[in-house]
């Protein structure tokens, strides 16, 4: 059963796109598919992907099904922001 589970995770990871990443991430979160979740979060770490995915039905589904994951995504993007230079 684990082999089938891993094969499904891999297949879903290979099929990630802007339209399905939200739904796929919700699926990964709900079924504790850590590798698939990691792949989705990596895909969403690219700002252009993230902002394109925001307006999709899949992302709306993610927000309803797994609202806590949105905090994780937000924190991930906050960490990537450049820190302002301090004036002396």
TrEMBL record:
Residues 20-73 form the BPM/SPOP BACK domain. InterPro entries: BACK_BPM_SPOP. It comes from the Eukaryota. Pfam families: BACK_BPM_SPOP. Belongs to the Tdpoz family. This is BTB/POZ and MATH domain-containing protein 2. It comes from Rhynchospora pubera. The lineage of its organism: Eukaryota, Viridiplantae, Streptophyta, Embryophyta, Tracheophyta.
């Amino acid at each position: 059963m684990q082999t089938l589970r891993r094969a499904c995770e891999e297949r879903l990871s290979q099929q990630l796109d802007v339209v399905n990443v939200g739904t796929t991430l919700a699926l990964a979160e709900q079924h504790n598919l850590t590798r698939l979740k990691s792949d989705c979060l990596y895909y969403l770490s690219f700002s252009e992907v993230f902002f394109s995915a925001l307006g999709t039905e899949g992302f709306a589904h993610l927000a309803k099904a797994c609202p806590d994951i949105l905090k994780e995504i937000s924190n991930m993007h906050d960490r990537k922001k450049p820190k302002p230079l301090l004036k002396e």
